[in-house]
Amino acid sequence: MNQRQVSKLCRRAGMSRQNYYSRRRQRQRREVDADLVLQLVRDERRQQPRLGGRKLRYLIGERLKAHDVKIGRDRLFRLLAENDLLIARKPGQPRTTNSRHSLPVFNNLVEGMTLTSPNQAWASDLTYIRTDQGFMFASLITDLFSRKIVGHFISDNLEAEGCLKALETALKELPTGACPIHHSDRGCQYCCHLYVERLQKAGLGISMTQTMHCYENALAERVNGILKQEYEMDSTFRTKEQARVAFEQAVWLYNYRRPHMSLKYHFPAEVHRPAA
C-alpha cells in the first residue's frame, strides 16, 4: 500500500498515520510471535503428540520469555484451534481386571490417607497395548505423592510375572528404610500368592480396592489414560518390539517431560528425586 492509499484509509477510519503504522507494527509483531509459538508447540509435539495446551504453555514459557513474547491462555488456545493443534480426547478402553477369584483380598489402607512425601504409597495397575502380532500388557506402579512411574514392565500375557517384574523394578530404586503401602485393584495378578508374598517379604503394606475400582484406584487409572491419550499407547503397533520401544519412551517422557498441574507444573521425577 503506497502513501496516498494509507492517507485515504486513515481519513476514512478517522485515525492518524502514526496510529495506523503503530497498529500495523503491533499486528506484525503478533504474527511473528504467533509463528514462534507455533514452532515451539510443534517442536514439543514431536516428542509428546497429545500433550494438552496448559502443559504446552508451561513448557514453552521460558523460551517465549527469552524472546519477550507474551501469550495468554485464551489466545494460545485460539491459536492452537486455528492451526488444528487442539487435542481431541479419545474414548476409554476395556479393562483388564479379573476380580472374580477365590484368592485373599486386603482392605483399602490409602483411602483418606494424607501424603507428605514420596514412597509412602504406590498404586499399581495393568493396561493393554494392541499390536498386529497380538496384545501386550503393561504393568505400572506409580507413586501416589510424586506421580512418578517407579516400576513398569510390558509382557505378552496377563500372568502375574509381568506385575512382579514391575514390582522388582520399583523395589530396586526404593531407598533403604522406606516401606510404602502397595495399593491395587483386586485383580488376580495382585492377589496371587507369589505377588502377596513378595510384598510381605519387602515389608510393604498391602491395600486393595473394596467396591468401586475406578474411584479407589483413580491415580493408576489416570496414568494409564495419559499414556494412551497423550503418548499414543492406544495405537495399533506393527510389532511387539515396536510397542516395547514406544512404551519405554512414553514412560520416560511422562516421568521427565510432562508437567503436572497437581505438582505445580513440576515433573514427577523432579518431585520424586528428594526421596532418592
Explain what you see.
The structure is a single chain. This protein has 276 residues and is of the alpha/beta class. The chain contains 11 helices and 6 strands. Strands 1, 2, 3, 4, 5 and 6 form a 6-stranded mixed beta sheet that branches. A hairpin with a 5-residue loop joins strand 2 (136-143) and strand 3 (149-155). The radius of gyration is 25 Å and the shape is globular. The relative contact order is 0.13.
What is the straight-line distance between the termini? 64 Å
Strand fraction: 5-15%
Enumerate the spans where pLDDT stays under 50 for 5 or more consecutive residues: 92-102
Output mean pLDDT. 82
Count all strands and give the number.
6
Structural class by helix and strand composition? alpha/beta
Largest sheet: 6 strands, mixed
Question: What global shape is seen?
Answer: globular
Radius of gyration: 25 Å
Specify the helix fraction band: 40-55%
Helices and strands in order:
Blueprint: H1 3-13, H2 17-47, H3 53-66, H4 73-82, E1 121-131, E2 136-143, E3 149-155, H5 160-172, E4 181-184, H6 188-191, H7 193-202, E5 205-208, H8 213-216, H9 218-229, E6 236-237, H10 240-257, H11 268-272
Parallel strand pairs: 1-4, 1-6, 4-5
Antiparallel strand pairs: 1-2, 2-3
